[in-house]
Amino acid sequence: MCEALTASLDKTVSALVAPGATPMAVVAIGGYGRGELSLYSDVDLMLLHDVGDAAAAAADLFRPLWDAKLRVGHSVRTVREASDAARERFDTQTTLLTSRLVAGSEELFAQLMAAVTRVTRARPLRRYLVDAERNRRAEAPYRLMAVDTKTGRGGLRALQGFEWERRRQELIGRFSSQHEREEAEALEVLLRVRNALHAVTGKAHDVFSPELREPVARWLERDTFETAGELVAAMQSIDRLAERKWPEILEDRPVPAGRRVWSRGAAPKEPVKTDSLPTIEDLDRLLGAGERGRAIFDTLWEEGHLTDVLPEWDVVATLPQLEPFHQHPVAPHLWRTVAEMQAILSDKGPLGDVGLELDHPRLLRLAAFLHDIGKGHGGEHANVGAGIAATFAKRTGMDGKTRDLLVDAVNHHLLLPLTATRRDLADPAVINDVASEVGSIELLQVLYLLTIADSRATGPTMWNDWKASLLKTLFLRCAARLGADEPAITTGAATRQEVLARSGGSIGEMAAHLDAMPDDYLRALSVEEVLWHLELVSDLKGVSNLGVRVGEPIDTVVVVGPSQPGFRRTVAAVFAANGVDVLEARLFGRSDGVVVDSFQVRDDRTGGMVPGERWDRVRVDVEAGLLGQLDTDDRVAIRAAAYPMSEASRPRPSARISTDPATGDLVVVVKCSDRIGRLAEILEVLDGCGLEIRLAKLDNREGEVIDTFHVGPGPMADLDLIGLERRISENVTP
Hints:
Elements: H1 2-16, E1 24-28, H2 30-34, E2 43-49, H3 55-67, E3 72-77, H4 79-88, H5 90-97, E4 100-104, H6 106-122, H7 126-139, H8 156-171, H9 181-201, H10 210-219, H11 224-245, H12 260-263, H13 280-287, H14 290-302, H15 313-316, H16 330-346, H17 350-358, H18 361-370, H19 381-396, H20 400-411, H21 415-422, H22 428-438, H23 441-458, H24 465-481, H25 496-501, H26 507-516, H27 527-538, E5 545-549, E6 555-562, H28 567-577, E7 580-589, E8 594-603, H29 614-626, H30 632-642, E9 654-659, E10 666-673, H31 678-688, E11 693-701, E12 704-711, H32 721-731
Parallel strand pairs: 2-3
Antiparallel strand pairs: 1-2, 1-4, 5-6, 6-8, 7-8, 7-11, 9-10, 10-12, 11-12
């Protein structure tokens, strides 16, 4: 396609240059000069002349191109002016290195190239190109799934740098290396994907963003996963080529000492014998050596020296991750997880203290490196990965205790995050269940640090103050259950006696309040929260009363009022219309028909506190909505139009229903695309299915939501769960 676009444009430009006109040369520069035009690329042209005024000739050339709606990057210069510009700016120099005569004076073009040669001989490019690559890596320390195919790390700019260096060598009469096969293959992949991006967006869009991956693959008549995998492999090849051509881009960090393969930073040419294969100590030194360690590892893998140590790496080395919340392909994610673990171990605060208690830095780095090694092998990746980790431990001669911790860490690396975001941490049965599955404080500590490193390395929506708070609560409660010396946190649950003792003159009213509440009411609340609830109920004069308490890391909002159809759906819609993002909700109904609902919330734009003055509007809107005086759907639509959500993911809505083994709760997990007002819609669907929700835990992940709703045990056990799943899935809009 690039060749066809370039040839067509050459023909058009040539036709615009009249024979015998003012002596001039029309020179293609930039991507046009290299013959790499994509569908919506800029057309970079230079009109080279040797007369005082070339304005008329320039107008004759450029005006028809502008009229054709082409984006023409143009310049009008003499040979001297072009030479001076190349001498002043590196980007002009590189642009002219791959310039190409399209039409006009061959003599003028030859003069230009002679001038460019003189500039190039006096001004080497290497430092400029190395700095540019370093900048790309500073902006993206780990390769991205949403790569900018033109200017991003592993993109076309690095390949162009290789070509500029080759062209310089040719111009000054030095030996110039040929294109490597790996380089040519990477170029083909990048140009293919870039053209497809242009085609499906109808503009010069170069980022392989999540919402475009399927359309790009469909336009190319290829499989989405295959297309993404080829792009990941191309980026990796370009990274490796850059490190080979410009080894100084690697950070200046000591290389692990040892055999020649480590000290030289490249694999030896001769085959490595079995007795000199990398040991566990060698691998650990690489894991701790940052980007240079990664480069050495990749070289070893490319040369086949890791086949007997970790052959499973072949599967994950170029494996893409298409979920929008994953920033990186699998291999860069694993390396970033190692780096995040290193940062934790260097932390001078509580996290670092946990690492010091473990005194297993090598184990923690290996767990970070191998936790997703099971991906791409088929089956549940944590379980598959545990098997691979066990085999790896056997190959490298790890001792029994360390081996068991590593295998268990890989096998259970999803246990804590899934529990924290989907289960009821206030229920002692849940804590007992997790503590029993973990089995030891030592493994719990490993899993805690691994969860933090993994979450931080996945993407910005996977780690925030709220999730950190949930995870810490789970960790400390499980540690206390497993016999930690200092049970730093308990459930904080109030007892009836404590509440009544603090009730003062309203002890009778409090007793009636507690009697009207469900059995699990006190389990999740402190004494202060129960007293606050009663105060709000006592002050209830209309259809609602709302109280707010600022907290860390999020605010708590309690809404009370007489039960009525759509009560909770209305409250959720008002929150959405006013930019209040709900993270968790505990929903209680008194036996006398009074609703007492508690929400953990944050601002949906900033992720921080909701400004205090906004709550006055929320109070008014909740009242009006419950009285039928406010169209909440219209208000939600207005905000949704003002703040459109990411189009990154459009998963088909799905519902999965199971029973929590520890509590007996019916658990409904709804997965769908994210947008303002989603919670209100889902609550309406669940209410229409006759489900009385007591706990909602909401997890937003870069354009999609995974919302978990707990329904108390009882008559729900007789429901047709498959039919209920289908009904929910069909009624949640795409």
